[in-house]
Amino acid sequence: MGQWFAENGLLIGLALLDGLAYAALVFMVAVGLNMVFGVLRIVNVAHGSLFAIGAYAAASIGLFLASLGLPPIAGFAALLLAAALVGGILGPLIERLVLRRIYGQEEVLQLLVTFALFMILEDVQKLIWGVQPIFQDAPMKALGTVDVPFGEDVIPFTAYQLFVLPGVALATLAGLAWFLRRTLTGRVIVAVTTDKEAAMAMGIDAAKVTLLTFTFGAALAALGGALASPTTSLVPGIGAQTIVLSFAVVATAGLGQIEGAAISALMIGLGRSIAVYLAPEFEVVVPYLIMVAVLLIRPQGLFGRLETRRV
Amino acid sequence: MSASDRDAPGVAAPRPSMRLPEAGLALAGAAALVLAAWAVPWLKFVLTIALAKGVAVLGILLLLRAGQVSFGHSMFLAVGAYTVAFLAPAVPEALLLLPLGALLGGLLGLVIGLFIVRYRDIFFSMLNLALSMVLYSLLEKLYDLTKGTDGIRVSALTFAGAVPDRETQEWVMFGLALALALGFGLLVRAYLASPMGRALAGIKTRETRLEFMGVSARRVLLFAYVFSAVMGGAAGTLVAMTTRHVTPQLAYWTSSGELVFIAILGGAGSALGPFLGATAFELVRVYAAAAVADAWQMILGGVLLLVILFAPGGLWGMLTSRLRGRA
Amino acid sequence: MSASDHRRAEAAGDPDRPREATRAPLLSARGLRLAFGGVKAADGIDLDVMPGEFLAIIGPNGAGKTTFINMTTGYLRPQAGSIDYDGQPILGLSPRAIVKRGIGRSFQLPQLFSEHTVLENAALAIAAHAGLWSPLTPLLRPRYREEAMALLDRFGLAPLAEARADALNEGARKLADIAMAAALQPRLLLMDEPTSGVAATEKMGIVETLVRVLRDTGVTAVFVEHDMEVVERFADRVAVWSQGRIAALGPPEQVLNDPAVLRDVIGIEPAHHA
């Protein structure tokens, strides 16, 4: 890798590619968080833990499949399976047993309930997977690298990060937009997001909608984690890191904004990866600075609607 | 808050009568802590930290009165702690460093507060969180200055010029923490009963009315925010002087979450709640860590869930309803 | 003799007071326009409010009555027009700045601090008027407590002083809401439906209390009202709002007997008695 680090222009090209892949992952997590907030009106602090558990589960399943002698490409099945398992088991469990009891309560109690879940899930994750780094990059290796032309040079970049991550993110975005606008269930979710009381007065089964939405949001977080697992080594603390980053994306976009989350994920992803190459000390700070700067100018977020108080 | 929620409408009698036990309970609690620290020497350290955190949680409690949750408040604690760590080699005097840490906490609180009091609810929480993460990242990344995640060892301190032996110093720190806890507790109580404190609670219920009374809700909230930052800074100096080692972890968002946890565990209804909560929190943490080293966080999380779902008034709420039931 | 008769007789018969027409208006609105989407909440409002008078605003729901109050108190900004108070333009000032100039308001949905007692609500308003900035002395110090009790007493709320604001019935909430506005000693008081939602049996009692207290303080009052009985009794002049315009303006006996007003405004009135 050393030789193309010498060239500054290539750095920027690499930063852009990196940022794109990173933004795709961040979007997957943030969009789930945003949907859950839209319907449940709860900011789920434990959302990052679902990301982490999804990542660990994907790695474990991938390693298991590999031990059966299946080809590396089977790792992709592991990613989907992990997301489905984590979302399908933990999602309903958390919503039914815990969140259901605190709808409409004071915000501080809601935040703290999910904070308690975060504390519990962090330890569950440590108990199952330990604290040693886990690395399982078979799906990424299986696809090899692509030479991306950049001016007169080429940047070798993994096909996984170049195509799979942004591809899945785009598919999620398009799929969600279609689902929310064109399907009955989607429209019901939108109705509950816009005006819960009115939706319930119309006979919508809010309990079903919240369960469905939370499960779906959890699965998206887990899928984000699963997709991220081949690109990095898994260590305790990634859940805590991920959740604050998704907060930044969601707050920057405006609460409840799905397309907005994609744009702010892109801003924050690119901003961060440019900082990685230009001023590495400030890499972690950039997302928060972007968020603070945006909220200074638009207190409701880039795409958020201002809620007016009634007198 | 939740204790008074249970008052029958229009029945005001329980309120003034609760004042008496509050003062008595504070003294009894202080005496119990001294006794515990004397009887079980290793508890002194735990209880000092609990009192220090209680002081920081008083700040959380102020903001909760306005209906706002700061999910980044430990940044002020970190400012106080790093003030001690940075300056101790040059100015080893604890009695100077303490007010200095509080002052710097308050200054940062003023700078951040000037902009953050424009926001409410989830945006208030998230902006606090984001800013605390900025501080955390800087503390972690500016290695030359802060030694990163390794943290800084606090060099030897003097107390009013004297260098006490280890045992004495532990008692001095415990006494300082207890004195600050009582002092700030009294201040907070007086403040909450004052026009500004009552207006602060008004932000939670009727912010528009405040504006139409000619009162700037932002200024009311700013005062509370700076006050809470000062307490956070003071608490941070106590933590640094007691643990003698500061790391960026102090400013991480999970540390802020802990402070909010303690506020709700103790109950937001009284200035005693934070200390009740902090003591319970630290004791559970110590015993849970000893019993199941890998799952103490899970136990704390479980306790938190149970408290919120089954005793939303916190320990203070349980205590007062018990007392009231007997009366 | 009704309260308004009394008021007009007093205004006309008092040789020391200049005639209404020759005095400068306390509040003067010109050409106010404001549209929400396609709905014209204000479509060229011109109105003068004379010092000392009680002006009632009537009209169907959605005619822009509350919008006028919101514009006058700085909560909404009109797209065009001007509002002068005491000869000074006040458009663009914040609600707080406008309150400080001497314009108070009460709300259709009473805006009380629900977790505070009635006494604390009143004391807080009195403290706000006095400056509020004392973080360590109690709100209920003797001075504020006495002033607050005196205020509550004038509004007939003294027996409820220790009750929590959210435990009051609607009539008491309305009175407490107006008492808090009155605690700021405004020269102009804008009241948004002071009797809506109040039980019919209580209504006149509340109106009597308001007339008595406000007359004592010499305040100028503008109030939105649906109950024509209250308007008759309370108002010196009546302004009829219709689709963001003032359709009629004059003394109650004239306006309330106008066939057009009877049909358009009072015709829908029975719905509000429910």
Automatic annotation (TrEMBL), chain A:
GO biological process: amino acid transport
Keyword hit for Transmembrane helix: yes
Molecular functions per Gene Ontology: transmembrane transporter activity
UniProt cross-references to InterPro entries, sorted A to Z: ABC_transp_permease, BCAA_transport_permease
A GO CC term attached to the entry: plasma membrane
Similarity field: Belongs to the binding-protein-dependent transport system permease family. LivHM subfamily.
This protein's name: Branched-chain amino acid ABC transporter permease
Automatic annotation (TrEMBL), chain B:
UniProt keywords, alphabetically: Cell membrane, Membrane, Transmembrane, Transmembrane helix
Membrane-spanning residues: 20-39, 45-64, 71-91, 97-117, 122-139, 171-192, 220-240, 260-284, 296-319
InterPro entries: ABC_transp_permease (IPR001851), LivM-like (IPR043428)
One Pfam family hit: BPD_transp_2
One Gene Ontology cellular component: plasma membrane
An MF annotation (GO) of this entry: branched-chain amino acid transmembrane transporter activity
Membrane topology reported for the UniProt record: Multi-pass membrane protein
Locations listed in the record: Cell membrane
CDD domains found in the cross-reference section: TM_PBP1_LivM_like
Full protein name: Branched-chain amino acid ABC transporter permease
From TrEMBL, chain C:
GO-annotated biological processes: D-alanine transmembrane transport; L-alanine transport; L-isoleucine import across plasma membrane; L-valine import across plasma membrane
Location of the region described as Disordered in the Swiss-Prot/TrEMBL record: 1-24
Residues forming coiled coils: none
Keyword hit for Amino-acid biosynthesis: no
Domain ABC transporter residue range list: 27-268
SMART domains reported for this sequence: AAA
Keywords per UniProt: ATP-binding, Nucleotide-binding, Transport
Basic and acidic residues bias spans: 1-22
Name of the featured protein: ABC transporter ATP-binding protein
Organism: Roseicella aerolata
